[in-house]
Structure to design on (410 residues):
């Protein structure tokens, strides 16, 4: 933008790089912040710094946790079922399940999906720690591993890889999320793969 | 969100309060920042603080300018036409005109519109400084004041108020932005007020 002061331009650039924010919304945000109280803006800035300073990653599942704690709120909760591990791509997926309030097991965050196109191999994901963790847990009880990667090409490939790596371990059962019609869906608009899955996976009524 | 570390929740709240960002996009942004390099995040935070620390408002037109300068890049530019003042609601509007690259006059930022519903009267806007500025400028030459408020109820009312306040000053002519069809419009979809304005304001071809 012409004749914008440097600090304004720099902040617009920062906001415009965030997911889902274009240059126009970034400018709108920054011009609002220009008029916001100084304390509000410095509190926002402090909040940003705190995300790196006060956050750590869970040693067990790689979820985020408070700095200074080894394990996250889920892993350190004895009332969660530690024999059921939901394997998700990232922390956003973990919190999507936490919001349902009905999952009582624990998680493992892969930190991505296997993607030859983007040069991401299994060794860059948190798979080694998952294998070690499962081996440790099966000494106490059987373990169910629920593969909860997205139902797309990369999610499927990663799920297949995990199945091959882990199914040999005694005491481990591997399942994956049900496929079918989403709640509130319109049969008319559902794609044929979804319809096929819904039909082949039909259950008693 | 359940079991989210405090700093994460606080930053999500901050982002969710910004215009155009909902709680879901805020979470997506924050989880991306959690994984971003610490220098990147601290640079972002510094950028935020700088918006209050390094920015001032132009004494003449109330546009933003670098801290330590009295007047903005437009007002301090001698090659701009200082006898033509475009009166806009806010800085975003000013930069919308600057982006066209074709306006050569100067601006005056009102800082809002008269709105009895929201309790905003003329005395809360930068109208006093506009009147004083126009009186100063007319001693040198005639001045054209282009009312460029949005074509809605509040914009119209504010424009009318400005006209009444300023038309008595000798040497001042008051104009407003043309009304008509926007470029690329479809006649079929234009509302009848726009069509009436386009017809009554028709010009030679």
């Amino acid at each position: 933008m012409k004749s914008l002061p440097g600090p304004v331009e720099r902040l617009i650039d920062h906001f415009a790089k965030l997911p889902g924010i274009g240059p126009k919304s970034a400018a709108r945000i920054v011009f609002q912040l220009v008029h916001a109280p100084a304390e509000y803006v410095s509190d926002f800035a402090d909040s940003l710094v705190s995300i790196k300073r006060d956050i750590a990653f869970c040693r067990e599942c790689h979820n985020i946790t408070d700095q200074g704690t080894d394990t996250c709120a889920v892993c350190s909760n004895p009332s969660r079922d530690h024999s059921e591990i939901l394997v998700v791509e990232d922390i956003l997926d973990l919190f999507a399940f936490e919001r349902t309030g009905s999952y009582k097991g624990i998680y493992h965050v892969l930190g991505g999906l296997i993607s030859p196109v983007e040069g991401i191999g299994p060794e860059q994901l948190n798979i080694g720690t998952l294998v070690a963790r499962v081996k440790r847990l099966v000494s106490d009880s059987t373990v169910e591993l629920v593969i909860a990667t997205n139902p797309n090409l990369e999610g499927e490939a990663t799920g297949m890889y995990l199945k091959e790596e882990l199914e040999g371990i005694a005491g481990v059962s591997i399942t994956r999320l049900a496929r079918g019609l989403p709640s509130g869906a319109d049969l008319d608009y559902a794609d044929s793969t979804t319809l096929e899955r819904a039909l082949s996976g039909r259950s008693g009524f």
About this structure: Residues 138 and 171 of chain A are 6 Å apart (CA to CA). Chain A has seven helices and six strands.
